[in-house]
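Quick one from the shared queue. A colleague (R.T.) flagged uroporphyrinogen-III C-methyltransferase as missing a structural entry in our internal table.

Convert sequence to C-alpha cells.
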Amino acid sequence: MKVYIIGAGPGNKEYLTLKAHALITQGEVLIYDALIDDSILELAPENCLKIEMGKRGGKPSISQSEINSLLIEKYNLGKQVIRLKGGDPFIFGRATPEIQALIKAGCEFEIVPGISSTLAAPLLANIPLTDTVMSRAFVILTAHDIKVLDWETISKIETLVILMGAKNLGEIVHQLLKHQRKPQTPVAIIKNCATPKQQIWISNLSNIAKQTYAEYLSPCVIIVGEVVRLRDYLQYPNNMVREKSEAKTEIAPLANKTILVTRSAGQSSKFSELLKKQGAKVIEMPALVITPPSSWHDLDLGITNINSFDWLILTSTNGVDYFFERLAEKGKDSRALAGVKIAVVGKKTAESLKTCGLVPDFIPPNFVADSLVANFPEKLSGKKILFPRVETGGREVLVKELNSQGAEVIEVAAYESSCPENILPEALLALQNYHIDVITFASSKTVKNFCYLIGENKDKLPEDLLENICIASIGPQTSQSCHSLLGRVDVEAQEYTLDGLTKAIIEWVRVA
C-alpha cells in the first residue's frame, strides 16, 4: 500500500491524467482539498471513505499537522490512501510538509502530477502565456502574502500569472502601477476555470479593481500582460464573445447554487449530471433504498402465466429493471410478451423499456399514473392486467381506478423501496451550515423519507432549516406530499420528468 499524492488538475475530471483517474477509482481512503470538483470525487468506489481536509483562504482550516497525522493513520491501517490536491501537488500545493511527515513515519508514497490552473486557466480562456513578440517569459506567483514579493523585479516581467490574489487585487494593481507598469496593460481574471461555473473578466490595470468585487472572485487566476489581447484572435469565430473592458462571459444558469438531490442512491447520478451541466453544485442525499421484494413468488407466478394477461403496466424504471431481470432469471426474454400490450408511465420508464428492445403501446399524457386510466386507449372492462410494482406504499389509487373500470388487476411485488438508516455526512454538514439552496423531490416517498431522516437528526439540525431553501417537486402528487409534510412547494415541474424539473429550477433562479 502507498499514499498517493495526486494532482487533481484544474477542475473537471476530463483534465485528470490517466494514472490519476485509475488510482482514484481504486482508492480506499480519499483525503481531498476543498476545491476538488465533484465529478472527480464521484470516481471513487462507493465504499471509499471520503474526507474533506480543505484549506481555504479566510475560512477555518484543518491544521497541516492534523492532515499529516491522518495520512499516516490511514496508511498504517493498510489502506490505499489517495491525497487529492488541486492542480499540481508541487505548484503551491503544500505537498512538502506532508511528504516530510510520511518519510519520517516510514510510509511509502508516490507523487502523481496534475495540470495546474496556472497553465490551464489561460489556455481555456484562449490566452497564450508566451509569444515571440509579446511574451518571451512569464512568472507564476502567489499573492497570498503580498508583502514578501519583490514587486520591482516582478513588474519588469512581460507576463504574470497570479494565484490567490483575489482579496489583494487592489494592492496588486497598486504595486504594479507604482513600479512603472502601464495603466493600459491588459488584465484577465479567470474564476472557476475548467468548470461550468467559469467566468472571465477582461480589463486593464487602471480599471480592473473598479469593475470587480474582490470577495466574489475566489478561486481565480489573474493574468497580467499584453498576451491577454491575443484572446480576441484565438477564438473560433462562432464562439467569440464581444467584450467591453467591463464585460464578463455568460455563466451557467445554476452557477453558485447548491442543490440537494433526494432520489434513490442508484438513480440520483443521472439527475445530478443534468444539474451539474447547468453549473450547479450537487449534493446527493439518498432518500430511498431500492431492494428486491421479500418474496419473488407472485412475480414469478405472473411471469409463468404471462400469456393470460392483456396488458402489462410499468410505472417506473425500477419496475422495468426488476421485471425483466426476473424474466431472464426464469429463462425467458421479451418474446414471452408477444401477445401482451405494455403501458408505461413517463418518458424515463419508456426509455428504460427501450433498452429491453421494446416500445410501449401506450404512454399517458402528463407522465402521471392518474392520467393512465383517463386516457387508456381501449375499454378496460374484462381486461386482465399484470402490474409489477413496489411492495409497499405503491399506487393504490391507480389500482382502484382500473378496477372501477372493470379491469382485473393482478398486483405483484417486483421490488421494495425503504428509507436509508442515516443521512450521508456530506449532506448533513451542508444542511447544518445552511449551504443548500434547493432541495429536489421526485416522488412522494422521497418527501416522506426525507422528513423521517430530518426528524431523526433534529438535534443536529437548525430549527429554521427549510426557511430559505427552495422546495422543488417533479409533479402534482409529489407536490401534494410536500404541502402535507413540509408546508409548501416553491417549484413544480411543468413536464413531470427530471429534465422538466431541471428547467423549472432554472426558471426559478432566473426570476428569483
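The CA atoms of residues 271 and 498 lie 6 Å apart.
Residues 238-249 have pLDDT under 50 and may be disordered.
Added to the table.
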